[in-house]
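From the thread on structure requests for the teaching lab: each student submitted one protein with a one-line request. Submission from student K.M.:

"Model YqzL family protein from Paenibacillus rhizophilus, tokens only."
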Amino acid sequence: MRDFSWKYFAMTGDVDAYLLYREAGEPLNLAAESPAEEEQVYDEEAQ
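Reply posted by the TA:
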């Protein structure tokens, strides 16, 4: 899936394909986070 999304992005420049590529490369976080922890992560990413 990751290889396909990268090739599709490279051929088309589609931003959604790139975001899918990035998401596929991240390790799965199966642990449930509390809403406060999720908010902190979003705040850190926004900076």
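TA comment: The radius of gyration is 14 Å. The mean pLDDT is 77.
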